[in-house]
Amino acid sequence: MSHRSGSAAGAAGVGEAAAAGRAEGRARLSHKPQWGVHAACSPFAAPLPRVGERPWPGVPGEMASMLAGLLMLWPLVLLLCDPAASIEFPKGLLQPPEFTEQPDKKIVIFPNDEATLKCEATGNPPVKFRWTRDGREFDPEQVLGMTQWNGRGTLNITTNNGNTPTKFHGRYRCYASNILGTAMSSESQIIAESAPQWPKEKVAPIAVEEGTHTVLPCNPPESAVPPKIYWLNNKIEHITKDDRVTMGQDGNLYFANVQMKDSRPDYICNAHFQGPRIIIQKEPIELKVFPTNSFSNQKPMLIVPDKMPNTYEAKQGEPLVLECIVAGLPTPTVEWIHMNRLKLSDRVVLENSNKTLRIPSVEEDDDGEYQCIAHNDHGTIRHSYYVTVEAAPYWIKEPESEIFAPGENVRLNCDVDGQPKPEVSWRINGIPLEEVMPDPRRKVVPGALILNQVQPNDTAVIQCEAHNKHGSLLANAYILIVRLPAEILTPDGLVYNVVENQTATLHCETFGAPRPTVNWLTEGMYSIMEDYRSFLFTNGTLQLEKVQREDAGNFTCFAENDQNNVSIVAHLFVKGATQFEVEPTNTEGEKGGHVTFHCKVVFDDTIAGPGLEWHRKGQLVKESADNDKYFINDTSLTITDLDYSDQGIYTCRAWTALDSVEKSAKLWVYGNPGPVSNLELSEQQDWQVKLTWTPGDDHNRPIKEYTVFCDESNFGQGKMEKLTTVPGNQPWATLHLSPFRKYNFYVKARNDHGDSPLNSHPVSYVTNPAAPKRNPSDVKGKGNETTNMIIAWTPLPRREWNAPMLKYLVQWRPRNHEQWNTVEVERPPVVVTDTPVFSPYEIKVQAQNGFGKGPEPHTTLGYSGEGVPEAVPENMGIMVINSTTIKISWTLLHRQKIFGHLRGFKIYYSNFGTMAEHSHRQVYLHPHPHGDLEIEGDVSQVTLGGFRPWSRYRLQMSVLNGQAEGPRNEALEFNTPEGVPSPPASFHLDCISDTALKLEWTPPKFPNGKLLRYKLAFQQANQTANQTALESTSYSISAEHNDFNLTDLAPHTPYKLYLWAETSVGPGEPFVLEEHAMRESVNLSFMNISLGETGKNYTTIVWTPRPNQRDVEIKVHLMSKTDKESWRTVGDASSSQGSFSIADLQPGKQYRVRLVKAHRTGEDQTIWETEVETSGVVPEDFQKSFAAEGWFIGFVSAIVLLILVLVLLCFIKRSKGGKYSVKDKEDTQVDSEARPMKDETFGEYSDNEEKPFTSSQPSLNGEIKALGSDDSLADYGGSVDVQFNEDGSFIGQYSGQKGKEGGGNDSSGATSPTNVVTALE
């Protein structure tokens, strides 16, 4: 229900007044104010007078009194109007002039150009327009080339048809008026220019010396709109700019230092004028660069600006550009600092290799001293700019349109600021205030215009204008003087639904003059304004912050002014807020992987329309039927196949009809870094260059390092090579290059995840040729004949020629001579002839090319060809160290007879057999080992090992040089003492009984002395070897015996047996026999086992007993293969019987038969096994029973039926003319022939229990070691300690090599006092 009441008597029974206003303080109009009344009031819409304005043309002067009378009726008019009248004027009602478009402040026109001065306004009655130029009113229709749109204020200017642009030059202003007032536009300046063109000029070539600086001028025609400058060549390609070559803000091209590659005849400056839309070219400039042999490095020198210091005025809100272009060699680097700050502002942008400092939009605190610092290796230069910031006028408080009641005091604010301080002027209806009739109620104060006790005829449009040297500012404001009753425009009984902890806004829009006062009351009629959470806006709206459930209820808005009071009721309902139970959190994922964001929300069930969705970059994230990128459910979002483009902020948004909440989380996608870009070369010197690049995306893993690669096309065949590595925070590298190369540079970044791709666009660089940096290596002088010397060296690789061609300057002379012999060749070798035998020469080889010689070469000593040595080792002595090792010493007295480089010595040896053979005079009955051995180096003694103990040897020596071998010296003979013997050559056992074994063996292959005895020890196989236990069970056996019976053994227990021989020196290695791993030898008791006579029901096994062997008990086993029986015993036999018959067999059947012997350890051993088939046929009852089986009958029937079906199919195929393919037939034949055989086993050998008894292992570790090689020592050269095999040949290697030590079995390891190993190496 509406609660409205009126206290004004005149308002009873009359329609309610209607209006609207929302601005602060009073019912203000918008920035573009409109006001009026309903169309029903149009008969009473009399025009309002403008304060101080002359009568409108065509209106009689006495109309002013009529208008004043109509104004007195204005409140009555409003009362008679529709109470729904609003400040948004309906069409056809009174409305003051209001601009919708104004002319631009600056317009530049060119010949054949068109321009538009915009001036559009609304108003009722319709507005009329007029223009002024340079402060004087003029009629646009009277100006040729200028037209005004019909009924509008916009002007069109055309400069064709002979209309010169200059006649339109001036400052223009537009006025829009109706009977309610006059609005005035801002001022517009028209600048007229002719078509830009370069003056005719002859551009002379610019000649400079390499390494100096120069400037190529552009000097484009001046224009109010500066052109864009481009430097191109005649192929319309941009001139490359870098830290060495820069284009200044004036358009000139500056070279910090010129290089030979800068020479070209077509540097063309192009100016693009955007106003007339034309591009003009300057005449090409030719730049000639003259080479120089010596660069003179230069410290930095300032080119732009050309004066010091500089003061610069920057305009607030506009860009600021400071330049610092410098010359120098090497190219200087430039940096900027702000003298009043620690670092430059974040808004500062450095361009042109730091030569240009740009601030896109200047702010007040950008003033101060800016200093550029340029430096290179030879000096530093500084330059200061002193920047002051000024500003065009800007608003502090702008005047606003308002409605006032008669008798109120009006204050129109116009507070502006700027630098310098702006001047403020006032106008009423476009007329300067000083030209308006004076009024004591009107007063101008700083920042405001005051009107006291206003009356209806004070309604007007008022202008405030401020200006300084940087610009001007204009505002139009309207004041309406009228009296209106209080009115609430907001409907009664509105319902407001809000959620708790939000702000509730209850509207109570009022209108009236004077402005009504508003108060809000609760259901208990208490003022809500007592609650600290409440705030009342000037338009009557109540704002209640952080509402709770208990705040719900009815609120009454009460409005009143001096004429009446009215009220409405608002209903407030408070709901539960939407809340997050689980919020999405920041996460990261690997490229190609997947991540999941979780988001769970709790809604108030009483609120309709709940929902949840995901957003990214303002776009809705949703699943797609085309791919599986996103998976969305009620509580999560999963993103698969992550790519770097997926990185960003993801927002979970939940909403109801009353509220919405959202939470965001960030996704980082990490992976290999992206490729670098923008590779540039700078600081280019002879063979050094600085490479810079722009880092690629690190993809959320810090860059650890950059690696610079190159491919070099002159010599590298495009092979990628690594040049250098720099830290990840350094996007540049100084590269040291080689002369005469063509490089393409690439950069690869690395982070913890991996490497980036190489950049796709390499930067190239070509280095100049130069003299070689080094000479060839491995220079040698050596003769291959006695009368020459061959000078050889390792040539320089082509990569190190540093030029297209390379030669070698070869010099030689006899040592201690002064005169050098010289020859120039392209490649080695150089042969020097007619030289004395083995004479020393000094040699030098120097690389040179067309650009100079390499460094001074080192002198190398060479020798002419060597002869046959005549020197022999003398005073040779032999010292026997032990049974296998000797020490040889000698002297070399006549070194001058070596006739070459002493390469070493050759030792010849011969073995004349053992001492036993000598005692029986058998030394010459058979050949013995002999051979030779080279000892490298200039040594005088050597230790040799590996000789055979108890043997006789003969030694000789000769001298070796690089060419030949000298004669042998006189031979010496020596004997080696006894040593320990080798293990017995064989060791066998035979089982006598469960507790006794018969042992047999053969003597050692190498007794190494006179055998004194054999020792036998044994232990149970499951016991560990123990020396004390073995000695307690050992037997001593005479050397003349080769067998032994071992008794009193534990039955069924395997043993481990040890047998060794002894000499006077001591025991040798034992032969170890493990009984549990052996089987008794059948051959000890049986010979020639075979099948004898076989009949229908019997068979016979025959064998030959071995003579002089014990009787062995065996068992005979039988198995029927035909009947698929298991093995069964059919009888016992002994080895002495010689045969065994098996009876009760069935005719025509197959059997397997075997002989089995029980081992001493309790296991069975198969001695022999074979197959046998009895003669005759299978008994009839067996055949009948087989044929009568049902399964057999069914099987045969199925076979017959299948054959019949196949025959029928073949007959049908032939009757239809079917033919077999010849190829198929051939293939069938081939397949039949090529069919592989079935898997069969042919005589496979199985190492199982059926393996015959074999010899046991010859050593403790069960391995048979190689016992020797041939008699030559050629394979063992290069050491001083040589070992012999047991057969007398040398084994092993020199001592000191591969960690092996010399000496025999009991050698003390004596070594030569001369370090022969070092000499050989």
Automatic annotation (TrEMBL):
Membrane-topology annotation of the record: Single-pass type I membrane protein
Keywords: Cell adhesion, Cell membrane, Cell projection, Developmental protein, Differentiation, Disulfide bond, Glycoprotein, Immunoglobulin domain, Membrane, Neurogenesis, Phosphoprotein, Repeat, Signal, Transmembrane, Transmembrane helix
Main localisation: membrane
Presence of the UniProt keyword Transmembrane helix in the record: yes
Domain of life: Eukaryota
Compositionally biased residues, Basic and acidic residues: 1222-1241
Positions of the Ig-like domain: 97-192, 199-271, 300-388, 393-480, 485-567, 578-654
Compositional bias ranges of the Polar residues kind: 757-767, 1307-1321
GO cellular component terms, A-Z: cell surface; growth cone; plasma membrane
Transmembrane regions listed in the UniProt entry: 1191-1212
Subcellular localization, as worded in the UniProt entry: Cell membrane; Cell projection, Growth cone
Annotated segments matching region Disordered: 756-783, 1222-1261, 1291-1321
Any one biological process term the GO annotation gives: brain development
GO molecular function list: cell-cell adhesion mediator activity
Domain (Fibronectin type-III): residue spans on this chain: 675-770, 775-867, 872-979, 983-1081, 1085-1181
Cited function: Neural cell adhesion molecule involved in the dynamics of cell adhesion and in the generation of transmembrane signals at tyrosine kinase receptors. During brain development, critical in multiple processes, including neuronal migration, axonal growth and fasciculation, and synaptogenesis. In the mature brain, plays a role in the dynamics of neuronal structure and function, including synaptic plasticity.
Quaternary structure and partners: Interacts with SHTN1; the interaction occurs in axonal growth cones. Interacts with isoform 2 of BSG.
Family: Belongs to the immunoglobulin superfamily. L1/neurofascin/NgCAM family.
Descriptive protein name: Neural cell adhesion molecule L1
Source species: Podarcis lilfordi
